[in-house]
Amino acid sequence: MIPVTEFRQFSEQQPAFRVLKPWWDVFTDYLSVAMLMIGVFGCTLQVMQDRIICLPKRVQPAQNHSSASNASQAVIGSTPLPPPKPSPTSPTTVEMKGLKTDLDLQQYSFINQMCYERALHWYAKYFPYLVLIHTLVFMVCSNFWFKFPGSSSKIEHFISILGKCFDSPWTTRALSEVSGEDSEEKDNRKNMSRPNTIQPSGPEGSLVNSQSLKSIPEKFVVDKSAAGALDKKEGEQAKALFEKVKKFRLHVEEGDILYAMYVRQTVLKVIKFLIIIAYNSALVSEVQFTVDCNVDMQDMTGYKNFSCNHTMAHLFSKLSFCYLCFVSIYGLTCLYTLYWLFYRSLREYSFEYVRQETGIDDIPDVKNDFAFMLHMIDQYDPLYSKRFAVFLSEVSENKLKQLNLNNEWTPDKLRQKLQTNAHNRLELPLIMLSGLPDTVFEITELQSLKLEIIKNVMIPATIAQLDSLQELSLHQCSVKIHSAALSFLKENLKVLSVKFDDVRELPPWMYGLRNLEELYLVGSLSHDISKNVTLESLRDLKSLKILSIKSNVSKIPQAVVDVSSHLQKMCIHNDGTKLVMLNNLKKMTNLTELELVHCDLERIPHAVFSLLSLQELDLKENNLKSIEEIISFQHLRKLTVLKLWYNSIAYIPEHIKKLTSLERLFFSHNKVEVLPSHLFLCNKIRYLDLSYNDIRFIPPEIGVLQSLHYFSITSNKVESLPDELYFCKKLKTLKIGKNSLSVLSPKIGNLLFLSYLDIKGNHFEVLPPELGDCRALKRAGLVVEDALFETLPSDVREQMKAE
Asked: Does the record bear Phosphoprotein in its keywords (predicted)?
């Protein structure tokens, strides 16, 4: 007998594929096995047993015909019996005669074969083979989508990911957390999941926040004690699973080949079922036990008519009825499958029940082949979809990232990164992380937190543990903040720095920081920023004193004017965009510092002359060519610092002598050729930078500047220094490098406080020994060629080298 296992290759698939076989596919597989056994059993009988047995058929002759030539069939090769005596009451019996030979067995076999081929109906002959072929077709149709390259690759990938998601420790952890929440916690989470809303924390009411928490419960903060439930290796594996699921979803949702193929193979099985039922019902009656055979073989055997017995007819008849029953059940099951395929929307899958049961509200619905496979999985066990859904949730992924972050960035490791920033605060810089570790909030001594290029930053309520936190820097970060954390920042945050690529990245909650004193914005803003709704809210920053905007604004936003009553310092650093309409500056009556850098200004804005409280003005990197308006600065009695560097100013007007309160003057990187003596009538100047100009001569009136501490004429064309320069005995820094000087006066020894001297790039041949009288000058503070330094006496060199 042929073993059924030989046909396994037609229906064999990987054991893991069973999760994609619903109950009807499993049931039809068993029916296929039963039908296959019928076919194999019938074929085996056909091969191993005699299929038909024939004997000569006795024929009753007509009354007027008694010829021996018309006798019926007799046993082949047998000796004719003597004719019986005729009875008057019975018809005459013809004696059966045949040709006598010694080949009885061969004659029987030959006649059996001839009658089997000619007299037996084809359905009776090929019934078991038809059953076998039809069953194999059914089996192939049922499993074709597991074998076809275009679909099997997706199925294998899906089954692989599904198994890993099902067995992942993170799945168990995530589901156990939400299942352990009580109803009160779930209610709180639902309240928290309302989009674009931060819970009110004060009398000012609620604030709108487009980047606030979205379906993120407070349990998002992973406890340190719970972190041990998932080791680093398991966390990395779960992280990789999230990435695989994302990519697989994008790939599979693009088409519906799996759905289309499953529908087609089901339709094909229904059509085949109808065909089988139709022709089998009509032909099953053709399987008869007795068959008459008329073969013209008298020349060989002496007989023509035979009566044949189909030995397996009775069995085949029963098997055919049994087969029809199996096929009918199979077909009805396929019809139910078609009903299920077309009645339900299988190309869309909703995780609504999973969201309700687990409380993970951000699990997305899926479509096309991804949805179809999930529907098939539900027929096997809905638990697979539930556990798989964990890896579709952004909230779940963020929790995992948070857990991995906490494991990687321990408090001790974070403390090693602490440093002191420019504001003399203890700062923790974190760059290009996947999130903000919760362990940061265990460093209670932290004063400044700097986050750079970190996506999906979540600031939890535990930030309230940082009692000393005063400064926060967000550079290209998308931030979500808990309502309790916002309340803490409103009360404690003094300095906020935000660097962004798009104005939409500006955190809306920053406009509610009522105690904020310094705000630094760096990024590209639209030219009509004054109409921007978010900047209108700057008026709520009642404590704001310093505002810095490094962007591309074309005019001062009205929102900035709204805070002018308490604004003390304003900095606008443009990218070369021309700044116009500066009349709003007149309203900033309390402004003490103003920086208009790289704003393409051609003249000093007249509005500046109305700022009577102004102490420092910086017009760096503009397009100033003339500063005749400088005479108007005489009304600014408090102006002490004037920075006109990096412009195209060709001369300094004599009106500068009116600026009697001036203490620091920056004129470097211009095109000044003549230095007016009236400049030195500003006798309070302590810092004078004239480097990188075309100055050839320094007036002796420089000796009037008895308060001068810093003087630089680097990169000019000066050929000699006036002796009056050395009357400035408080001079600490003197930069005269890259000029045309050939002699350094011995009077330089009068500068007893000189600690930094740059003379490199001149034509000196020897240095005066009187440099040794400058006791504060050391070798590190003397910028000079090594060869020229060696011209000093050895004791002077040793003195400078000594610490």
From this structure: yes
